């Protein structure tokens, strides 16, 4: 009987030891996986992918610096995070003060990048499972500038650009693309990658240019001005009209024969200067046809001459309204 009891007790003891060993292994596995320091990082990345900025900010325990918050939620945030692919975690590294560093590698636009997340142990759950949280820090800031515009688009979201510049608080990792696609003014897209809270990020600069639509609109108004001016000169039979072109001669030109026309219209070039948009000097050619009498010989001949001309204008763009004001000097 005693030997049987001993065997039973030994069996129970072995079972208990195996259960304890299994529990220890299970605890270690849980602490290394779902309760490990990688888990808050995974939850943070998931929140970024879903555009849940409030949740991401809470997980990151980050403060928001004084800046525009347009990139911290919704479509703009989803767009930034969607460009982060092929995520792989490295081996967690111990740091002083119950802290660990979780390294992460990923790809953005074909480039392999890395980010380090600093976390700290904040306690345990159910006596055995570690609790981890991000070490609080401030979000990085992305600077954006645009030439001669108070608007731009950042990650597909229209943003205000007072005096052509603005600062945006951003999450990391992510990629941010600025562009300007207006009817009259546009800028090629410019991208910046934010890989960490302490990693310097180059500012995004949009080099705005006048669109072909604006050049065509200005060219149309310049053509209208020159055609109207030439028509008025013909109607008034003037050799020196209030136009950029004129004709000077010592001969007598027969009234009623004067005909002005524009033989070459100016090519329009628009550039930024001093916070405004300016039209480069407009160069063209005007043709004069008439009959003239030589005052010395009395001979009557046909006059057919082409004159180069040049003038400047002031350009004003207010919304959809374009105003071109010729600036003539006499």
Low-confidence region ranges:
21-33
Number of continuous helical runs: 5
| CATH architectural name of the largest domain | Roll
Alpha carbon gyration radius: 37 Å
Fraction in helix: 25-40%
> What portion of the residues fall into strands of 2 or more residues?
35-45%
How many domains? The number is 3
- How does the overall form come out from the CA principal axes? rod-shaped
Q: Write down the overall mean pLDDT.
A: 89
> Which topology of the largest domain does CATH recognise?
Nuclear Transport Factor 2, Chain: A
Order of helices and strands: HHHEHEEEEEEEEEEEEEEHEEEEEEE
Brief sketch in words of this structure:
Helices cover 26% and strands 42% of the residues. The protein is an alpha+beta fold. α2 (38-49) packs antiparallel against α3 (53-60).
């Amino acid at each position: 009987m005693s030997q049987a009891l001993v065997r039973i007790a030994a069996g129970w003891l072995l079972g208990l030891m195996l259960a304890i060993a299994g529990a220890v292994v299970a605890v270690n596995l849980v602490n290394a996986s779902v309760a490990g320091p990688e888990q808050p990082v995974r939850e943070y990345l998931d929140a970024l992918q879903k555009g849940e900025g409030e949740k991401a900010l809470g997980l990151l325990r980050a403060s928001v610096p004084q800046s525009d918050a347009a990139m911290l939620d919704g479509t703009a945030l989803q767009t930034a995070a969607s460009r982060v692919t092929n995520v792989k975690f490295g081996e967690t590294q111990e740091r002083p003060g119950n802290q660990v560093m979780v390294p992460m590698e990923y790809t953005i636009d074909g480039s392999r990048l890395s980010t380090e997340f600093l976390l700290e142990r904040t306690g345990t759950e159910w006596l055995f499972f570690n609790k981890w949280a991000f070490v609080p820090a401030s979000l990085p800031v992305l600077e954006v500038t645009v030439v001669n515009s108070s608007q731009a688009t950042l990650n597909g979201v229209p943003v205000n650009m007072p005096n052509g510049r603005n600062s945006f608080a951003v999450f990391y990792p992510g990629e941010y693309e600025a562009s300007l696609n207006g009817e009259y003014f546009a800028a090629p897209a410019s991208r910046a990658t934010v890989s960490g809270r302490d990693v310097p990020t180059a500012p995004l600069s949009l080099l705005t240019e006048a669109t072909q639509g604006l050049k065509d609109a200005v060219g149309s108004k310049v053509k209208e001005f020159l055609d109207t001016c030439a028509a008025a000169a013909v109607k008034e039979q003037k050799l020196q009209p209030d136009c950029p072109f004129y004709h000077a001669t010592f001969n007598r030109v027969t009234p009623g024969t004067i005909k002005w026309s524009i033989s070459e219209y100016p090519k329009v070039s628009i550039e930024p200067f001093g916070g405004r948009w300016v039209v480069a000097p407009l160069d063209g050619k005007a043709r004069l046809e008439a009959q003239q009498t030589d005052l010395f010989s009395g001979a009557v001949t046909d006059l057919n001459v082409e004159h180069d001309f040049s003038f400047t204008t002031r350009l004003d763009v207010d919304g959809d309204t374009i105003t071109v004001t010729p600036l003539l000097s006499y």
